[in-house]
Amino acid sequence: MPKLNGAPLDCGAALERWGAMVFRLAWHTLGCREDAEDAAQEVFVSLVQSKSTFRDEEHLQRWLVRCTIHRCRNLSLSAWRRHTVPLPERWDVPAYGSDPMDQSVSEAVGRLPTPYRQAVCLHYVEGYTALEIGRLLGCPRGTVLSRLSRARTLLRTYLKEEVL
What we know:
CATH class of the largest domain: Mainly Alpha
Strand content: under 5%
Oligomer: single chain
Helix content: over 70%
CATH topology of the largest domain: Rna Polymerase Sigma Factor, Chain: A
Largest sheet: 3 strands, mixed
């Protein structure tokens, strides 16, 4: 059983607190609701089965983000996924609002490469700073800033294409 500060971890409380974040990150990474649900479920099953001791809630949160990214990577590289044909409109993340422009932004984010999509999700949706994202992803702050900058450039290009 995992522990937090030496005491047994309430995994139900962890699911309540970080379940939505894990699911959103998986959804933005994989672009498919069903795969995101599977990945998020596997992350919390791993937490329940873990014998890790977490120093504090930030340590637990970082572990959940890293575990989510690893699960998504494993799922996207699996032989099963490489041999399946996606449905015509795979990127089904709902728009951030009811405005049609929000829908086009959501679709443009879905076209970004995975590392850029993860950085955008963690920064703009979850509200993390570049330094925090770097800690979560295990990369330097400068790399995160580059990914965000390149993602914004690609988003501008995608959105201009849509207007034309």
